[in-house]
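Course assignment 3, question 2. Fill in each field.
Student: A.L.
Task: Predict the tertiary structure for the chain below.
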Amino acid sequence: MSLDNYPPGAANDPSAPYNEKTQYGIEFNCIATQTLTMATKISTNQYISEEDWDDCLNCRCESYDTSDVNWSEEFDDMGIGIPDLLEELKKRLTKEMAEITEDQREGNKKWRYRRLQYLAEACGAWKLEDQIVEEE
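Answer field:
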C-alpha cells in the first residue's frame, strides 16, 4: 500500500500533471529580419521631358525619361520609410512617458509606463539593412 496518494505507478511518471516542471521564459539573442513593401507615388523633378508627335492620335505627346532618377533618395526625402515612422513613434512614446509622473509610474500607470518604455526601446532597436525603390 502506497502512502503518497499517487495512483499505482504514477509517482515517477514525468507526463503526470503533478510531476511536470514549470518552464520559465529565458531570453535568447536573436536577429529578426522582415521584408515589407509599400506601393506609393513619389514626386520628382529629376526627369528628362521629351516631346513627340503621335501620328495615330494626331497630337503632341510627352514622355518622361526617369532612368537617372535615384528613387531611393527621392523616397527618403518623403520621410515615410519604416525608419522614419519608427523614429516618429519613438518621439511620441517618449513624450507620453514624460507625461506620467513618478508617483503614477509606481502606482496606477505602472503597467502603461513599462509598456511605453518597452515599445520605445523596440523602435530604437530596428536597423535598416537594405532598401530598394524602383519605378513600376
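Instructor remarks: The two ends are 80 Å apart (CA to CA). Residues 82-98 form the longest helix (17 residues).
Grade: pending
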